[in-house]
């Protein structure tokens, strides 16, 4: 409870006690003055209770700050090697902003079933879309899981650190997701979700403006190298 709320609560309790004590000490034979005293006592009691109510509401309006969870995993930044330089810079900027401007601990970008970027606290487990992620893409809505321990489907987020307390799932149209893991329970505010949505839309636009799929280029290059390897060996 904040110190200001404690002061208000103390004043309310003291005021209510004084009203009760004054009522007990008043002589019974006051006669005509008794109704006036009763009205004054009721008003004073209402004011004292009102002060205590203000203290309670003050405490609810200023909840205790959640402590950060110590997530297990190394800090790092991973980018897919097949991306153009412009997209790599865009992803680097976006992930940096998310980690600095929001309570994000880890950021993952998936596009066309390929992991394009990981940043923050990393794990070695690959991305696998689960029911919650799929539903977010189907409905094209942001999904904020404020406390993963309360959700039976939390196991689908195994690609984040094991003790991740909160996750925001932002769909990138029908082709991918921007997933953000938080440091503590209920750490993402409404403004944080709006910021994440804006960053996701910017990244989606940048990825859709590519002339062709960079992952297809990468796969084609791998196939070309694989097919040319036997010829080089024969030579």
Which features would summarize this protein structure in a list?
single chain; Beta-Lactamase; alpha+beta; 235 residues; disordered C terminus; six-stranded antiparallel beta sheet
Walkthrough of the structure:
Residues 219-235 have low confidence and may be disordered. By secondary structure, this protein is α+β, with helices and mostly antiparallel strands. The protein starts with a helix and ends with a helix. A hairpin with a 4-residue loop joins strand 5 and strand 6. Strands 1-3-2-6-5-4 form a 6-stranded antiparallel beta sheet, sandwiched between helices. It has 2 domains: 3-61; 75-216, GAF domain (Beta-Lactamase). The chain has helices at residues 3-25, 33-61, 85-101, 131-139, 190-208, 214-234, and strands spanning 75-79, 104-111, 114-121, 143-145, 166-171, 176-182.
Q: Summarize this, please?
A:
It is built from 6 helices and 6 strands; from the N terminus they run ααβαββαβββαα.
Q: How large is the radius of gyration?
A: 30 Å
Coarse structural class: alpha+beta
How many domains, in number, for the residues? 2
CATH architecture level-2 label of the largest domain: 2-Layer Sandwich
CATH topology of the largest domain: Beta-Lactamase
Order of helices and strands: HHEHEEHEEEHH
Percent strand equals 15-25%
Mean pLDDT: 82
> What's the oligomerization state?
single chain
Largest sheet: spatial strand order? 1-3-2-6-5-4
Give the beta-strand count: 6
CATH superfamily of the largest domain: GAF domain
> What gap, in angstroms, lies between the N and C termini?
79 Å
Major sheet attributes: 6 strands, antiparallel
Q: Look at the structure and give the CATH class of the largest domain.
A: Alpha Beta
Shape: elongated
Low-confidence spans: 219-235
Number of H- or I-type helical stretches: 6
Helical content band: 40-55%
């Amino acid at each position: 409870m904040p110190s200001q709320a404690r002061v208000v609560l103390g004043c309310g309790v003291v005021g209510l006690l004084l009203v009760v004590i004054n009522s007990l000490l008043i002589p019974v034979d006051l006669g005509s003055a008794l109704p006036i005293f009763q009205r004054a006592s009721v008003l004073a009691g209402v004011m004292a209770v009102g002060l205590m109510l203000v203290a309670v509401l003050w405490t609810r309006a200023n909840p205790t700050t959640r402590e950060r969870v110590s997530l297990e995993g190394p800090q790092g930044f991973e980018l897919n090697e097949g991306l153009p330089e412009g997209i790599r810079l865009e992803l680097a900027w976006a992930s940096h902003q998310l980690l600095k401007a929001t309570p994000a601990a880890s950021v993952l970008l998936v596009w066309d079933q390929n992991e394009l970027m990981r940043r923050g606290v990393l794990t070695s487990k690959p991305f696998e879309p689960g029911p919650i992620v799929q539903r977010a893409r189907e409905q094209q809505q942001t999904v904020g899981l404020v406390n993963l321990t309360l959700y039976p489907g939390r196991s689908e987020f195994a690609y984040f650190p094991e003790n991740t307390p909160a996750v925001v799932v932002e769909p990138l149209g029908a082709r991918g997701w921007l997933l953000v893991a938080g440091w503590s329970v209920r750490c993402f505010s409404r403004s944080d979700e709006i910021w994440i949505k804006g960053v996701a839309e910017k990244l989606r636009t940048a990825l859709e403006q590519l002339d062709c799929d960079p992952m297809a280029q990468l796969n084609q290059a791998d196939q070309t190298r694989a097919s040319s390897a036997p010829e080089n060996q024969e030579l």
